Amino acid sequence: MLSIAGSDPSGGAGIQADLKTATALGVYGAAAITSLTVQNTRGVTGIHPVPAGFVADQIVAVLTDLEVAAIKIGMLATAEIAAAVAEVLRARPGPAIVLDPVVIATSGDRLVTPEVTAVIKDELLTLATVITPNLPETGTLLDHEPPTTVAEMSLAAQELRTQGSAAALVKGGHLGRSETITDVLADADGVINFSGPYVPTANTHGTGCTLSSAIASELASGRRLRPAVEAAKNYLTGALRAGADRRIGSGSGPVDHLWREQSR
Ligand SMILES: Nc1ncnc2c1ncn2[C@@H]1O[C@H](COP(=O)(O)OP(=O)(O)O)[C@@H](O)[C@H]1O
Ligand SMILES: Cc1ncc(COP(=O)(O)O)c(N)n1
Q1: What does the alpha-carbon distance between residue 39 and residue 184 come to, in Å, rounded to a whole number?
Q2: Any idea where the Pyridoxamine kinase/Phosphomethylpyrimidine kinase domain is (predicted)?
Q3: Looking at 34, 204, 210, 237, which residue is catalytic?
């Protein structure tokens, strides 16, 4: 599994979360870094994008050497980086692509320039096996208000497919506190809801990164999309539960990626 994403020095999101996730799921993880961030569990205070050509060189170095089965795309800090990633991946079809159209961190800080969304819509959506927006990102991609109910999420997921993505998983983490939390997948076979228990915790830093890299890891292991999403959501729920009461940092802490190892 190759992750194309940003670095989070506090270790809970971005590349660091993706490599922990792949490792926990028994998959070899590689990483092409798109951007350095200055961030911790409290927020993001700096962004230092990697030059677009250098991002492309990292991806080519991995794809021309390792047998990559699935790619996860996360934070693309600038339109130039997003376009360079699209160009490289267009030229080398094959791996499944999980596109997490990251715009804003859990802390509320913006991670990418406004121009990135247009490149995601015009160039990356059609390359993706599945796109995994949260509710605000869904609104941005569709150019209307974000969904506020599971029924609206279902409509939005189908609308994202008509924009060119083979499948769309609209994540419901921003719907607020309830008994269960539902993500909605629209694919060629229709629409299916993935519900899990809501875990009451402030430690949700990196949940989106963890889910998308878990889906990519499960696809790399040979699962089809629906079983991959189900397994990824179960893994994330376990990681949220195990990390719920940990005190790592003073803000929104990370999930416990290694929960399965510890319960052995
Ligand atoms: N408190 C929670 N309990 C259980 N699952 C959660 C919780 N918060 C988020 N999730 C799950 O984490 C994943 C990411 O959700 P979301 O917060 O919507 O995206 P993002 O992290 O990209 O903003 C989804 O699968 C969502 O259902
Ligand atoms: C480098 C980087 N990439 C992505 C996120 C989003 O994190 P989340 O999974 O909480 O939406 C982040 N905080 N930092």
Answers
A1: 30
A2: 8-256
A3: 204
Q: Is 14 a catalytic residue?
A: no
- What's the complex ipTM? 0.98
Determine, yes or no, domain membership for 30: yes
- Residue with the smallest CA separation from ligand 2 atom 13 is 105
Is residue 197 assigned to a domain? no
User: Of how many residues is the chain composed?
Assistant: 264
Burial classification of residue 46, based on how many CB atoms lie within 10 Å of its CB (0-12 exposed, 13-18 middle, 19 or more buried): exposed
What gap in Å lies between CA 132 and CA 194, rounded to an integer? 13
pTM of the model: 0.98
Distance 13 CA to ligand 2 centre (A): 5
Place of tokens 């499948």: 167
Catalytic option among 6, 12, 172, 206: 206
What distance in Å separates the CA atoms of residue 93 and residue 244, rounded to the nearest whole number? Answer: 39
- Pairing label, strands 180-187, 168-170: antiparallel
pLDDT (tens digit, 9 = 90+) per residue, 37-59?
Answer: 999 999 999 999 999 999 999 99
In a domain, 12, yes or no: yes
Burial class (CB in 10 A: 0-12, 13-18, 19+), 53: exposed
Q: Which domain holds residue 111?
A: 2-134+202-258
* Nearest Cα residue to atom 10 of ligand 2: 206
Number of compact structural domains in the chain: 1
Q: Which atom of ligand 2 is nearest to the CA of 7?
A: 1
pLDDT tens for residues 81-129? 999 999 999 999 999 999 999 998 877 889 999 999 999 999 999 999 9
Q: Is residue 17 part of a domain?
A: yes
| Residues 253 and 133 sit within 8 Å (Cβ to Cβ) | no
CATH number of 81's domain:
3.40.1190.20
Place of tokens 């990824």: 232
